[in-house]
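User: Hey, quick favor. My workstation is busy. Could you predict this chain's structure for me?
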Amino acid sequence: MNSSNTPNFPALNSPQRQGNATGSGRNKVALPKGRSLMDWIRLGNSGADLTGVGGRLIRVTPEELAKHNTPEDCWMAINGAVYNISHYCEFHPGGIAEIMRGAGKDGTRLFNEVHRWVNYDSMLKKCLVGKLVTESIFKSPAQYGNLLAPPRAVGTNLSTVNKPQASNTGFGSSLLALPFSRPIIPNRPRYDYYQNESSVKLSIYTRTPGICSEHLVLERPGGNIRITVYLPSNKLYRLHIAPDLKLLLSCKIQSAVSTGKLELEFLKSEKGLKWTQLGKFLPQHDTIQDRADISPMLTNVSESVTTNISSAVTDSISNSTTTATDCQVTETDSGNTNTVAAATEFIQCRISEVLSLTHDTNLYTLNLPEGYHMEVPTGHHLRLKASILGMEIVRSYTPVHLLDSSESKETFNSVLYLIIKIYKDGAFTQHLQSLTVGDTIPVSHHVGAFDMAEASLCSKMLLLAAGTGLTPMIKIILHNVARDKPTHLVCFNKTQSDILWREELDSLASRGSLQVTHVLSKPDSEWAGLTGRINQDMLLQFLSPESKDTTFIAACGPILFSQLCLSYLKKMDCDDKRIHIFQE
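Assistant: No problem, here it is.
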């Protein structure tokens, strides 16, 4: 699609593009009664034909797609699949006007600008019309070109291509020869390994100063070693190895921030046994990928969907159709090696404790499987996933550290604490409320753009948090308190009973550099503190004209709260580089 003809989705002046310093914002509108997510799930399971084509999968040309561009007859293509979203328009949290920006068009790129985390192939699976086709399925042999691979050079031995140089690893020089040739990438990460009597050490040289243990996720499915290192520029580096002999699940991880070196030490199950080889490579070993390519929410139309739709039309002469059972959309998370299966990005975590913090908010303690390591960076969030009445729902939450506990580093690398507000009409949180200790829930790798090092360049911080918007601020506060950095936390709530961790925050504030202010919008007669909602006059109490150039400001809460914060800060001429708006 030519960029000049690409619709703005959402519009450039849409509220979805405003009030978000992170560039990934979304806005919600007030939906009428009967248009909640649970209502949409019920409609999808009602047996009603939401496709408009009798449940058959058909081929759709761009010309045909363009005919369906009204709210009453609205089709949209996303990643090669065409959906009839006519029934969904009224359920769209961003409003009908926003979703109509992609009506009758291929909205893939535009959809991902705002909704990249949405697993829409599950959300819209009952609306699937068919496959978007852009050319005839018939080609002359000449159009296919040469389908044969070029001949291999005489004498080429694939087993020696790109073979690692012999080194003093203790394993021998013939191990793990790569069976393929890879492009040469400047400053490409590399790895090495060696052993002693009791352990095997794996060293990763990222060649990127600043990389540390919080950029690494270690998984041990079936005793294998799967490592993901998150690099700058939205890249990641993967290692995936099946050890030759058994290793214990425990692992010691060290990092050298100045060079970006990571070292993992695995204990042998049999001490004194000298290994002759490390093991064998598994898919995606020693590869660099774009993070967007592997996000489970970006695989969108899975390989199975594409394959099934394609099989329905490849032998057709006209717009022939097939039944839904012949082209069933599968529920699997599997993808291909280019997009990475969602299972590699979600980890099954066990709920070990649920504590009530307020009348509608709980603290969930989740344990990663034994041997797993994930240290979530400050300001980053996780995605939790659940299948509710056959529809896959994903929600984002920011993990916190406990304020009244001396957690060890080992603990917060394997345990996640999530503060979650339970909504009476919330499909996901009601599901979460139904889970008990011992149940599991899929949790993604961490996601986020907040840079604590950059924020720390300012001499002080102002943190504006509404309700559970407090969660990303907790780690910032602990980081700053440990360094005596002046930090002012302003918490906005309705009533005193809504205030999260009030005693713990006040106790922390009594020790030094942290100042805590509570603001209530619906105070009782006993309240002597600030009242009202966020406004510019109130902000001026916390941020004087003299201090705005030396203060980093972060805000998190409902979208309207975040938009107001950003609007007022702009009017105060605060620099964008010193503002970060988290999305709750």
